[in-house]
Amino acid sequence: MSKILDKLFSVASKLQNKYNYNKHYFHAKQKISKSLLNCKNKRYLSASQKEEIRSFYKRLTGKNVSLLYHEYFLSRTGNYSKEYMPIDLFEADIIGRANRWDYYIGSFRDKNFDEIYLPHIKHPHTYLKNINGYYYYEGNPVSKEEAITLCNNLKNIIIKPSLLSKGVGVKKISVTNGIIDNDGQTIEELFNAYKKDYIIQEAIMQHDKLSVLNPTSVNTMRIMTYRSGMEVLVVYSVIRIGRIGQVIDNQSAGGISTIINEDGTLGKYAFGVAGDDMIEKTDTGIVLEGYQIPYFKKALDIVKQSHYDLPFFDIVGWDISINQEGDPVLVEWNGNPGPSQTACGTGLGKYTERIIKEVWPRVNSRFYV
After folding, report:
1. DSSP state letter for 103
2. Given pLDDT bands bounded at 50, 70 and 90, which one contains residue 252?
3. Cα–Cα distance between 74 and 30 in angstroms, integer?
């Protein structure tokens, strides 16, 4: 009887994995279809381009990929490439093969542990961690009442959920005698609103050359790296810039992004949400093309070194700022990074074919299909 039950459980698990896998593809296509409708300039693939794309991905994966993504990025940027990465393929197949998904959705995703997992990179000073409802102030366990008292007079701090990304729930606040300057809420009410699993850190004082791009947000570099054995490759680098008055720089939250060239200079155009394309200046009036990002090589070197600290993740997205002393500071890392294809060109850049060939034979740890 136990063998029969085990077999039934195995069959049910496979069916559930297949269902979740197909559902992910379905929802991703729905999302890109809606985004395509918002493009100002609709551009269409030629018959020869469609055939080139299908042949390229069929050869590498054996799959017939959706052409919606190529049409979307062609419409946004005006540039064609067979190597644009279909997001459904990337999220459902590539990431699960390159990275251990079961590890990522566990403690590795929790920002409260970044300083432990990544000891070789500079982190913002952390005041308070809430881990599964327990409080730790500067590394020491404290009660909720003690945490409230210790946080009663903190200036220029960032509070954010420790298990979420893309700027969700991020707030910049100052606290005076237990009252938040921004909205009059008490620090206890703030803690209650976040419930559990969050972190409070000192706000990064970014380098002047980043601040002038937009002073109200920490404008971060998104650097994607790929580890292949003892080699770490920089797949692409972009800068994300907030809009005037915004705290968040993420493109999905209304910010803009543009490519960082290999010499640390910016590209000509930035892109925002669909329909917000070909932006040549920041809201502060800085012309993007040729603008030099400070200490860019230093940032590349530290993320490449730090990638060796994450042996379960071969594709990593790093959000890096540069502080006033010129040190790269980790804002967060992501084991499920969305490719910045409007800004940088193609999702895996010049390494597209190599990366797919290397990861495709592996087990898909996200869906086990």
Report:
1. H
2. low
3. 18
Per-residue confidence (pLDDT) for residue 254, from 0 to 100 = 76
Residues 107 and 139 grouped into a single domain: no
Tell me the two tokens of residue 125: 């000073």
What is the distance between the alpha carbons of residues 119 and 139, in angstroms, rounded to a whole number? Answer: 15
- Among 182, 202, 222, the domain-final residue is 202
> Is residue 184 located within the same domain as residue 219?
no
pLDDT tens for each residue of 331-340: 999 999 989 9
**Spatial CA neighbour of 279 closest among 304, 310, 254:** 254
CB 40 within 8 A of CB 271: no
Q: What is the mean pLDDT of the chain?
A: 94
Q: CB–CB of 130/198 below 8 Å?
A: yes
Domain count along the chain: 2
Quick check: 83 and 57 in contact, CB under 8 A?
no
Name the residue type at position 229.
G
DSSP 72-141: HHHHHHS---TTPPPHHHIIIIIHHHHB-HHHHTTGGG-GGGHHHH-TTSB-PPEEEEEETTEEEETTEE
| CATH number of the domain within which 213 lies | 3.30.470.20
> Domain range spanning residue 358?
1-123+205-369
Does residue 330 register a pLDDT over 90?
A: yes
CA distance 97 to 90: 10
Q: Report pTM.
A: 0.93
Radius of gyration of the chain (CA): 22
